[in-house]
Write a structure and sequence with these properties.
By secondary structure, the chain is an alpha+beta fold. The chain has helices spanning about 1-15, 55-70, 115, 120-130, 145, 150-160, 170-180, 185-195, 200-210; strands at about 15-20, 40-45, 50-55, 70-75, 80-85, 90-95, 95-100, 105-110, 140-145, 185, 210-215, 225-230. α6 (about 150-160) packs across α9. The longest helix is centred in the middle third of the chain and has 13 residues, at about 120-130.
Length: about 240
């Protein structure tokens, strides 16, 4: 309670406000424009049912990871404007992404490590990390180098490439019943078990939906160990079999 109380006091002292887009607008500022000199683009999100706009390869990786994370229920690019006083000056900051899970709401700022370590960024990060909980949000700087870690990002791309099609309730139940026989199954064994009725696309979709767990940090292969959803969701959204 003391931490929350201190957060509220700090938020009042720095006059923190959050302004979300109005009049039907999605973003607080434009991302993809013709005048942009650096790489920008659009990511087709199944979860958000629209094209998400990114303005760096790091943000694109973040979108892919959030899309594939079954604990993430919502994510939004350029979600708001944060206004606050820092060192006696009024500052305005546009977080890159709002990430909503079943338990938390976080603003993400996506930066390469070199930029994240700049004194002005470190100072802003320290303040927002302390004061935003007073308004119901967490704040996090997410490093581009972490988002690009292999084989995790390669696994996520694989799941998104092959897991976009809906699967029938019958297929879902057939896979679930296999795990009644054994809590853990090998990728290749699940596919062989039903004489080809269950395929790669089905498994990818079930992983994206959170029905099946894999260790996302180990390269997907025929030997990948799968487990059914009785294993609790970890804080990162992918399940922990420990």
């Amino acid at each position: 309670m003391k931490i929350i109380h201190n957060s509220i006091l700090l938020a009042k002292q720095c006059q923190l406000t959050i302004t979300f887009p109005e009049n039907g607008k999605i973003r607080s500022r434009k991302v993809v424009t013709r005048s942009r000199t650096r790489a920008t683009g659009k990511f087709p999100s199944m979860k958000m049912m629209r094209a998400m706009q990114w303005e760096s390869p790091h943000e694109l990786n973040a979108f892919r990871l959030l899309e594939a994370n079954p604990a993430v229920t919502h994510f939004q690019e350029q979600p708001c404007v944060l206004q606050f006083i820092l060192n006696g000056e009024i500052r305005r900051h546009y977080p890159d992404i709002l990430v909503v899970t079943r338990e938390t709401k976080e603003f993400w700022e996506v930066k390469p490590e070199e930029e994240a370590s700049r004194p002005e960024v470190v100072e802003r990060t320290a303040l927002l990390t302390k004061v935003l909980p007073a308004l119901g949000y967490q704040y996090r700087v997410v490093l581009g180098e972490d988002l690009a870690k292999r084989p995790r990002i390669e696994n996520v791309n694989y799941l998104l490439d092959y897991g976009r099609k809906e699967i029938t309730p019958i297929i879902r139940e057939q896979v679930r019943l296999l795990f009644n026989l054994s809590k853990h199954q090998r990728w290749r064994d699940v596919i062989k078990a039903e004489n080809g009725k269950i395929n790669r696309d089905h498994l990818c979709r079930l992983i994206l939906d959170g029905d099946i767990h894999i260790d996302i940090d180990q390269k997907i292969s025929d030997a990948t160990v799968l487990s059914w959803r009785e294993v609790p969701l970890s804080e990162t959204g992918w399940r922990s079999g420990k």
